[in-house]
Amino acid sequence: FLLSRGKSFRHHQPKRYIQHHQNNTTVYARLNDSRTLAIQKQADATTILRLNQATVYNQSILTEQLPTLLIDPSTMDMLEQGSASRRQLLDWLVFHMKQGFHPQWVAYQRLLKQRNSLLKKTRQLTQVQLAELKSWDKGLSNHAALIHHYREQVFTEWQPYFAKSVLQLLPSYAEQLSLSYNAGYDTNVALDVQLNERLEQDLQLGYTRIGNHRADIHVHWRSDNTVPSDDVVDSQATNTNTASSNHEVNAKLPTLKEQAANVLSRGEKKLLITALRLSQLPLLLND
Q: What does the radius of gyration of the chain's CA atoms come to, in whole angstroms?
């Protein structure tokens, strides 16, 4: 995980996972095609990355060579947490499947950081600041459209793999669980137009409320809307003396759609999160 992500899932400070009394730690791997990867972490968090013995300066170069999934207790609350962990689940897939995604994501994050910094500084923009903001919004809009395009494509490809994984781990809910993707903004309207319409509210709040950074993945639970004939009150049939009274009767109830996290037990939620993660691996292998 350290080699693939450039950080440990156990602690963000390298000195917490470097062997006691040592100044650094090195992790090295040789892939099946003989490529080599290496990372060295110093106690002061200085990092050295190597690909085929050559130094590289961007962790994403190693990450794309070594897709790594983590399933541990810290990941088992993503259904109840904010959208960030669920969004990262999708973006991890998109990063490995769509080569153009990462540059767009990095550029979007840079512009978003600049925009939010300005929003925090003032509640009243000067003409110069307003012109600058509009320029950033146009850039955000262009990047957002491509990011959404990549996410939507991968999400569509991911769904049947998720369904298959649920069938294996939660077979009794296979027909009732489904995924949905929320882009974080209205994709039918350019993002810069929507940001301009909400500028006053964003200034008051001090941050940008809509965009790719608010995207989310939801797991829905849908009830079965048919009650078998055995559960139908007998009086429905006995009140009539027609031949149809001998036929099977089914009662239709409204279909209930709910967040899966609100319906499943804690153990079932853990299985569901495991299904979400494991369903990504065969998709990558078949890509």
A: 25
Provide the token pair at 25: 């730690």
Bridge pairing between strands 216-222 and 257-259: antiparallel
20-66 pLDDT, tens digit each: 889 999 999 999 999 999 999 999 989 999 999 999 999 999 999 99
Contacts of 238 (CB under 8 A, 6+ apart): 245
Cβ-contact 141, 148 below 8 angstroms? no
Rounded Cα–Cα distance for residues 148 and 212 (Å): 7
- Rounded to the nearest angstrom, the gap between the alpha carbon of residue 103 and the centroid of all alpha carbons in its chain is 18
Strand order in the sheet with 216-222: 177-182, 216-222, 257-259
Q: Domain extents for the chain?
A: 1-67, 69-228+250-286
Instruction: Decide if 287 contacts 254 (C-beta within 8 A).
Output: no
Looking at residue 79, what DSSP letter applies? T
Instruction: For residue 114, give Cα distances in angstroms to 77, 117, 133.
Output: 31, 5, 9
Closest C-alpha to 217, from 82, 103, 98:
82
> Nearest CA to 219 among 250, 173, 258?
258
Would you identify the CATH topology of the domain 69-228+250-286? Glutathione S-transferase Yfyf (Class Pi); Chain A, domain 2 (1.20.1050)
Let me know: does 208 contact 191? Beta carbons within 8 Å: no
- Strand pairing partners for 193? none
Query: Is-above-0.85 flag for pTM?
Result: no
